[in-house]
Amino acid sequence: KAGVTQTPRYLIKTRGQQVTLSCSPISGHRSVSWYQQTPGQGLQFLFEYFSETQRNKGNFPGRFSGRQFSNSRSEMNVSTLELGDSALYLCASRGAGAHNEQFFGPGTRLTVL
Amino acid sequence: QKEVEQDPGPLSVPEGAIVSLNCTYSNSAFQYFMWYRQYSRKGPELLMYTYSSGNKEDGRFTAQVDKSSKYISLFIRDSQPSDSATYLCAMIASGGYNKLIFGAGTRLAVHP
After folding, report:
1. Three-state secondary-structure class, residue B59
2. What number of C-beta contacts closer than 8 Å exist between A and B?
3. Among B63, B66, B28, which Cα is nearest to B49's?
4. Cβ contact, residue pair B98, A101, below 8 Å
């Protein structure tokens, strides 16, 4: 079974630009969560989508948004990029069942210049 | 104060040592407890999952949860150089859907 895939793996953008990151969950998984990882703040929850609906949201500004498609693939968008948005963006998927085992993708490393 | 506290290390041990990694937390609503391992420039890999209090063993790894003390541990027996990585504890509160709250991560180096 293929794991969680994320594209692109690396991105370089300049301040003020916007960026879209993509995540394909494990086949059959309907929940997709996004996290930001930085050396200073560690891993922080951005938002979660389940069946195309945002179910939970972290404490990030409105510049960070996301969506989920009917095939469970998800995208996140960051508008008006700031230097502080440089981070590893991780996507995690979870299948059905009582236990909350989430599996992460390799991440997209975003550098904002 | 962070909801989950974890000593970032680094922790350096000789090969074959028993490693103890710990996290404390303040939110009594946390019900699901996980340990992830993250190698440099990779995504976190799920190592252990525990629901509520108790112990769980998987090969060289043992996870313990003590909800009364709000304290979780991961033990690695017979540590190997390939165990060198950052270990992250993570928790989900009851009703928190899939929102993982992570500790800062402990960097572990196992030297031959």
Report:
1. coil
2. 64
3. B63
4. no
Give residue B53's pLDDT.
84
Chain A nearest-CA distance from B49, in A, is 7
pLDDT of residue B70: 95
Say whether pLDDT at B71 is over 80.
yes
> How many CB atoms within 10 Å of residue B67?
15
Least confident of A6-20, A36-50, B90-104: B90-104
Structure tokens at A65: 């948004």
DSSP string, A51-113: TTEEEEE-S--TTEEEEE-TTS-EEEEE-S--GGG-EEEEEEEE-SSSS---EE---EEEEE-
